[in-house]
Amino acid sequence: MGENIVAHPDFILYHIGETPGNHGVGFLVKKYLAKHIDGFHGVSERIALLNLKLPDYKDPWTIIQIYSPTEQADMETIGQFYQDLNKALQTYAHKNIIVMGDFNGQIGERQRDEDAIIGPYTYSSKPRSRNGKMLMDFAMENNLTILNTVFKKKKNRMWTWLSPDGKSKNQIDFILTNKHKFFPSINVINNLNFNTNHRMVRAELNSSQPKNPRPKISRENIKINKHLIGEIANSLNSKLKDYKYETKDADTQDKYNWLENKIATTTKEHSKRKENLYNRMTEKTVNLLNQRAVLISAKNTGKNRKEIARISKEIKENIRKDRRQHRMETIERHIRQTGGIKKAYKELTNKKEWIVKMKDREEKRSEENW
């Protein structure tokens, strides 16, 4: 027994174990990946690591194969196992992580605040076992997602273990990762020609690293009226208060995407909301609006109230003139561009009439007949 690495014609076998027939873990690596192996690390007969530098991935991968103590083991044994597992992660693991194997525990249904580690598809609604709780604590602590629960499968394609009497089925073999979006699918393999009451779990990893998608922001040119800049800045300043919390575990690219998204969406929100109003106004009208805003926020005196009334009357008259001017300019622009005014009217129309409910009409008709 002990620790061995054996190169076969088609694969490389790594194994570590001290107890024949009971414990032991290892890896079977296809020969074409041999040049990408960065090393094996045997932690115990229950934990082994493989570090790989896959050609089309920016960062190396760490794959950890485990065999957890059973539910019948004492707390000291299971506690030591997870202590060794956490230490192995801290000591040897790279940025991309997979932890897989027989965890000998059932996780039950997803509970509150577990969306980041458990997907919506679990096999059993039975209560979470002791080992299941230990597994969940480990996943939460290391920001790992249980891949088995991410993809929707029929129940008969989810169980991984069959009891010796053939009466009970359960899901106790799992694959965990901190990069679940890199995996397009996961499956159990039926009828594996091997003497075991477990079904093998197979996850597919994308052949190359998916690119970080840029936020889907409309790239239309947004004309920002100078009077909106201060308002946009205040709104953005409020949203940026969440920056540290929302990007705590993000890399540089994701942080950049977050900032770009906030700036673009905030600018668009404000420009869309007020562009029609400000674009129709002359600078004189906007200045009058600002003067009135200052007066309204000042001390409420008789003199101020009279001045507010005077300015309001002037604003009303100016807005009427500005609208008329904007309307004429819009029609002239469309006549020059298309020779017609249909699109001009469509652009100028900023309201919709709703149809009165048929029920109201019927009730009114009934009252008239009565």
From TrEMBL:
Gene3D superfamilies: Endonuclease/exonuclease/phosphatase (3.60.10.10). SUPFAM superfamilies: DNase I-like. It comes from the Eukaryota. One of its GO terms (molecular function) is catalytic activity. Residues 62-200 form the Endonuclease/exonuclease/phosphatase domain. InterPro entries: Endo/exonu/phosph_ase_sf, Endo/exonuclease/phosphatase, Swc5/CFDP1/2. Coiled coil: none annotated. It holds the Pfam family Exo_endo_phos_2. This is Endonuclease/exonuclease/phosphatase domain-containing protein.
